Amino acid sequence: MSSKAERQVLVGLQAAAGTGVNVDTALRATCGLRADVEKVHPEEDIGSFAPARHYVAQVRPEGTITLDGTYEQAVILAAMALGEPTPVGSEDPWTWTFPLPDVTDDLLDFALWSLEYTDGNNAIVRAVDVFAKALTISGEAGRGWIFEADLDGGSTTFPAALTATPAIGSVTPIRMADTTLRIDAAYDDIGTTTVEELISFTWKLEEFQHAKQFAGSLYPNGRGNGRWKLSLELILEAAAAEAETLRDALLATTQYAIQLRGYASASDYIYLDGMYMIEEVDTLDDRDGNNILKIMCLGEKNGDDDTGQVQIVTNNSAL
User: Fold this and answer.
1) Would you say residue 52 lies in a domain?
2) How confident is the model at residue 47 (pLDDT cuts 50, 70, 90)?
């Protein structure tokens, strides 16, 4: 009998599409993958009441991965969704910057992964060319950050054994107790003004990366980028003066530079930077006995083409 306590999620960064690698990183995550197999039953009239044959038209893995936010492993899910940057630094710590692109010159290389999910090495699912087509980062007061990615990929198999069994390394959690919300009028000033009474946030990137299917392969064998959509939901105490300012901004066309900052130390921190417009405000809702504002923001760029970025500083020197 399999055991939930034995589950593992293992990944390895590929050098090229279509070429799987042995996994080398054990994630502190849970994952669910399914092999989406499209079987075609031809419409045939051959003198029989029953279908006589079928064929497999395409195969692709789909699923989700959920990671308890840590500075060391958040880099991997960010790379799945935004591509592979080159870290800056010559020693611990290293700075990883994932820009939200404005033009094609801003695009990072696709970061494609071999991923293996196992239940104690009894049942194994292996997928190659895996990437994230959507990434959600969230946090709630009294807890930690959560990273959740919607996965897509290429071929899927069910091998008898894992390609490797890497050890789980030590990590530093991204806690809401170490999180601050910064809101400023200009992107050049981002991170300057702290807004108090942050209860929770949900940051979601979608519609950016996608797979492309071409003839000559059962599996998606191309990748593409589209115009990304970025949304940010902020839950704030209504007593925060800055929250009231954002409420009033719903009726204006004002943009705001917003930063979610998780900061454990000078060698472990994360910034979610962006330019946003206020899209929706739900005023004086009740949540856990609090008078709150739920503020929905949509990401865009300013007049200087500043879009924002995800920046992570940690001791990881490579994906």
Assistant:
1) no
2) confident
Per the domain annotation, does 24 fall within a domain? yes
Q: 247-292 pLDDT, tens per residue?
A: 777 778 789 999 999 999 999 999 999 999 989 888 766 666 777 8
Tokens linked to 248: 């009033």
- Pair 157, 126: CB distance under 8 Å: yes
Identify whether the C-beta of residue 109 lies closer than 8 Å to the C-beta of residue 124. no
Task: Please report whether residue 274 resides in a domain.
Answer: yes
**Which token pair is 118?**
């196992």
Q: Total domain count for the chain?
A: 1
pTM exceeding the 0.90 threshold for the entire prediction: yes
Cα–Cα distance, 258 to 277 (Å, whole number): 10
For residue 50, tell me if it sits in a domain: no
User: Reduced to 3 states, what is the DSSP secondary structure of residue 107?
Assistant: coil
The fraction of the chain above a pLDDT of 90, given in percent, is 59
Q: Three-state DSSP class for 159?
A: coil
Containing structural domain, residue 107: 4-37+58-314
DSSP 188-231: GGTT-SEE--EEEEEEEEESSEEEE--TT-SS--EEEE---EEE
